[in-house]
Design goal:
mainly alpha; 74% helix; globular
Length: 418
């Protein structure tokens, strides 16, 4: 592999800066031109790899990863848009906590993307009289990220580990204590914040909870298409996986009644925005990932502690997509230990693999770009006129005061003394 010039990380940094500042400083301009910015910067990196490095193999690999990513996210978005979960009334903080617990468990069965796309709309409707930024952010923390830490289906980094040979049930067996601590702390924080928010709501809003709540499920035939998508995740044939997902999405879209799409305020704008922005992200982050893969072992030292992998994987997962970051640090661990295969690695350095796994999943919640569902949840919330924090507002108003203490506790309890 040819080493990229470190200066070629600049387009990625510029794109992150634009994503962070554009919607805040120039929202109208950004809405009209974000595609030009993302695709233009991506084209700079693609040109460098084609004409300077002549690395078409790396481009093909990244292109396939992007196709798999957008096929999964897009198909889940379309299928979940055909399922309407209706509820009457206003949820109390306690009922919100119960809903988030269900979402955290569902994330391990449907994947964080599937659970987030299925549940974000009813979550907003449950809290429609007082929904605010903290409802969206804690949903991202719990359902779209930390909740999916128990199975390879739960989050893309863990699925990549499974494809590398990590046994399916190894994740649940080893990650459940971190999952329990992380989810418990986040739910406790949410309950306190939501309790304060609920107490400040007008009496008319609080008394709506006394109404009888009736849950209603429409479009359940789409569960069949959802099962096809989840089954396709395990298909290894090139492009067959993506073809099955696209076929399921088309089947769902054309068989779902228009009334259900209307009830969900369904349109294609959120997935188009995500597809364009992540096309730029996948392209521009190639030099950063290649540089990491080639230099991580040297930077980590000969005998790095598990905490180094937890924080290293985590911090970069919050800035890069957490799936390729997971693979980068797993590769670095092979280089440091000299292990020949995943069985030998798990036998000698299981705690290090665990640190990489938990770091990738938990830190994916730290920014909107840390994990694929985050941007999707934000886009759907904004589509339904819910206020969401801007890029840096998400980090400094929520990730730092709420998520960071959880990460420190998990590190101190499970990786600090190892």
């Amino acid at each position: 592999m040819v080493s990229p010039n470190p200066w070629m990380i600049l387009p990625f940094a510029l794109l992150l800066g634009a994503i962070a500042s554009g919607p805040v400083l120039a929202p109208g301009w950004w809405l009209r031109h974000y595609a030009k910015v993302a695709l233009g910067l991506g084209a700079v990196t693609l040109g460098y790899y084609i004409f300077i490095l002549r690395d078409t193999h790396g481009l093909g690999h990244t292109g396939h990863e992007y196709a798999s990513f957008i096929a999964l996210v897009g198909s889940l978005y379309i299928v979940s848009g055909g399922i309407h979960i209706g509820v009457k009334g206003e949820a109390t903080p306690f009922k919100n906590v119960i809903f988030l617990v269900i979402g955290a468990v569902a994330a391990n069965l449907l994947g964080t993307t599937g659970a987030a796309m299925l549940l974000i709309r009813p979550w907003i409707r449950m809290n429609r009289y007082r929904v605010t930024a903290h409802h969206i952010v804690f949903f991202i923390f719990i359902v779209a990220n930390v909740g999916g830490c128990l199975t390879p289906i739960g989050d893309p980094p863990l699925f990549l580990g499974y494809l590398q040979g990590v046994p399916f049930w190894w994740v649940a067996k080893n990650c459940w204590p971190m999952w329990a601590v992380g989810i418990g702390l986040l739910l406790s924080m949410f309950y306190v914040v939501d309790k304060v928010n609920f107490s400040r709501a007008p009496r008319a809003v609080r008394e709506k909870e006394t109404l009888h709540e009736t849950w209603r499920f429409d479009g359940l035939s789409n569960l069949f298409f959802l099962a096809i998508i989840l089954g396709a995740v395990f298909v290894k044939a090139i492009f067959m996986r993506e073809a099955l997902m696209i076929a399921a999405a088309l089947g769902s879209y054309f068989t779902t009644r228009k009334a259900i799409h209307a009830a969900n305020h369904f349109d294609f704008h959120p997935i188009i925005e995500v597809a364009i922005l992540f096309a730029g992200i996948f392209a521009t982050m190639m030099p950063a990932l290649d540089w990491l893969n080639q230099n991580a072992a040297r930077l980590l030292g000969e005998h790095p502690a598990p905490g180094v992998f937890f924080w290293g994987t985590g911090v970069l997962s919050s800035a890069l997509d957490n799936a390729p970051t997971y693979l980068g640090f797993l590769s670095a661990l092979f280089g440091v230990t000299g292990a020949n295969d995943i069985v030998e690695l798990l036998g000698q350095n299981s705690i290090h693999v665990l640190a990489i796994s938990v770091g990738a999943v938990f830190f994916g919640a730290a920014t909107y770009i840390g994990n694929g569902p985050n941007f999707m949840v934000k886009a759907i919330a904004e589509q339904q006129k819910v206020s969401t924090p801007p890029f840096f507002g998400f980090i400094f108003k929520f990730a730092v005061p709420f998520l960071l203490p959880v990460l420190i506790v998990v590190w101190w309890m499970f990786f600090y003394r190892q």
